[in-house]
Design a protein that fits this description.
Order of helices and strands: EHEHEEHEHEEHEHEHE
Number of domains: 1
Strand order of the largest sheet: 1-10-9-6-2-3-5
CATH topology: Rossmann fold
Largest sheet: 7 strands, parallel
Distance between the termini: 18 Å
Number of strands: 10
Bound molecules: 2-amino-2-deoxy-6-O-phosphono-alpha-D-glucopyranose
Radius of gyration: 16 Å
CATH architecture: 3-Layer(aba) Sandwich
Number of helices: 7
């Protein structure tokens, strides 16, 4: 695991975007693994700017997002699908058929989960997976206690996660109780992982990851077993 300290949120976003841009410039068919949340917003701005400046093209690239809430449609403004459209997809030239976000509004979630892993595998696996981290150490929506061996699956969200994400909803009651997420194993199959950690609320998660302990109680710790992980952090001590 390689650790890079950024002096600011902007610098963290730029360093992360640079890693993706460099890959895309040599591999036009790059498979991007993407994340949502407040942390990657600056990263997406950098990618959009690079696209607009003609430095990169997504014409032959594919993307797979980490996760999605269960029970809300892609048109719902709180959905991760909507977030991705606003932050990235509406502004770049990735083809619709190459954009993948797990399906959370289907009656057959088990099939949606299995199909998602099959699609990622058929695409040759993710080249670079972007990750944020939850205050409890979750990655994607893999909450503490999740077996590291799981592929894409349906999870029940913890109260702390629902509480942290309620800013995107009118009230806590409206925050979905379940989500579909790439599993830890799906994430581990990515060839490279870039994890962003930003802000005082992530201090404890940062410390725990830095300690090197590997435990299913702290999902992000699985990444210690991956051979190519870059953690870019800012505003944590
Ligand atoms: C959500 C997402 C995660 C994200 C985490 C942290 O729970 N499922 O993928 O990393 O929130 O979000 P933020 O960056 O807003 O702190």
């Amino acid at each position: 695991m390689k650790w890079i300290k950024a002096e600011s949120y902007e610098e963290m976003s730029k360093i992360a975007a640079e890693i993706f841009k460099e890959e895309l410039q040599v591999n036009r068919e790059m498979v991007l693994g993407l994340a949502t949340g407040g942390t990657p917003e600056g990263f997406y701005k950098e990618l959009v700017n690079a696209y607009k400046a003609g430095e990169i093209s997504f014409a032959d690239a594919k993307s797979f997002n980490l996760d999605e809430y269960i029970g809300i449609s892609p048109e719902n403004e709180a959905s991760y699908h909507y977030y991705m459209d606003q932050q990235l997809f509406n502004h770049i030239n990735m083809k619709d058929e190459n954009i993948h976000v797990p399906t959370g509004d289907t009656s057959d979630l088990a099939k949606a989960a299995a199909d998602y892993d099959a699609m990622i595998e058929a695409a040759g696996n993710v080249d670079i997976q972007l990750l944020g981290i939850g205050v409890n150490g979750h990655i994607g929506f893999n909450e503490p206690g999740t077996p590291f061996s799981l592929g894409t699956n349906v999870v029940e969200l913890t109260e702390s996660t629902r509480e942290a994400n309620k800013i995107y909803f009118d009230s806590l009651d409206e925050v979905p109780t379940h989500a579909i997420t790439m599993g830890i194993q799906t994430i581990m199959n990515a060839k490279k992982v870039v994890l962003l950690i930003s802000g005082a609320s992530k201090q404890e998660a940062y410390n725990r990851l830095r300690s090197g302990e590997i435990t299913e109680d702290f999902p992000a710790s699985a990444l210690h077993k991956h051979k190519d992980v870059i953690v870019i952090y800012t505003d944590v001590k």
